[in-house]
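S., here's the first fold you wanted:
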Amino acid sequence: MATAPLILGYWAIRGRAGVLRNLLDYCAVPYENLVYEEKEEWFKVDKEQLDFKYPNIPYIIDNGKMITETLALLHYIPIKGEKRDLLGLDHEERHSDILESLGVGMDLRYEVRKLVATKGDFETEKETFFTADKSKGRSKLHQFDRVLKDRDWLVKDISIADFYLFEIVDLIHEMDSARLTNLPHLLSFRNRFLELPQVKAHRSSDNFIQLWFRPGATTWNNADKIW
């Protein structure tokens, strides 16, 4: 008897769930892409009614399992899809390398998220982010660029860390593609990732959501390019 597709719940944006949707399709895990159009649908209804240990979105509901928090979901999906190699679970050192890269990626995402949500002048803040010597974002981007100089992926083979980094690099490319000119290995990484057949299929499917953030939630968004 076939099991029902799992449910991935998140806002009707790419946001934090973009990497999860991409990973689910890459791992060929059937799922329902449940999107919340209005805040009340989550905050006033499902957050209260669904029995999560730590109520938050994105979440996965899978045959009685109720899982939240992005890091936990990034681990759950490859195990569900029988692609444990994406986690490096067969090799302790590789698993540690993946977690290290993922941790730096999460720090970088935090800096990028601060940039797009700035209440100051966006162009001024963007220039500082990409050029200032003390910019944490600039520093981490160049760290990743150096790591990718002599390899295709952050660790020996593709992993969840690459999926996470791709979301950040793809956001930067859409925000201001010229900023990747001085990061040639990151740019090559993005192009290489986009050529993966499963990624191509995901981005042409209904599961792919182009809108990065809810309109009004950030200073920079790509809503004007979509609508």
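And the second, which I think is the more interesting of the pair:
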Amino acid sequence: MNNLTTKLLRFSPRRRNRQKGVGALEVAISAGLMIIVVAIAVDVTILNYAFSVNDAACRDAARAAASCSYPNAAAAAAGQANAVTAAQTACRMHTTDGWLITLPALRSTAAPDFVYDDHYGFAPPPPQTAFTTVTTFVDVRLPIPLFFMGNSASGMLSATGGKIRFVRRYTFPIVRQNYTG
């Protein structure tokens, strides 16, 4: 074949149309993959935000509960109830939308999820310290359910109603300047 025939075959309309079809196929595949990547990014962003809200709420609730210190043993009897109220109030300060991410709440007001050990206003023995432990949780619904091989990522969590639960626990010391004895 001569050079002219080779050039004509290279630029034939049939070959150009085939290249346009490949370009359309690339755009379709890229768009599909981009939708999946954006869906995963949205879900991960919501999960990250839920974790940070729960972390901040638990830390603030533990700090609020630890700030309930009492000067003597008679007043310390009400310490546990007041510490629970202070922790619940601190949790309410962290607002969310309430549907995608539920409001942070105390997991329980009993041990081991909530402990207020102030030694009834007395100084604890030397290796010990007065402390409070608070456990909070938030439930998260994924805004964009992802499907893999017929299974939904949020549907696999059927035990919690399709929600993901983040649980966080903090322990803070109860600091006093003077103890009664």
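Why I say that: The chain has one domain: 13-173. The first helix runs from residue 3 to 10.

Talk tomorrow,
H.
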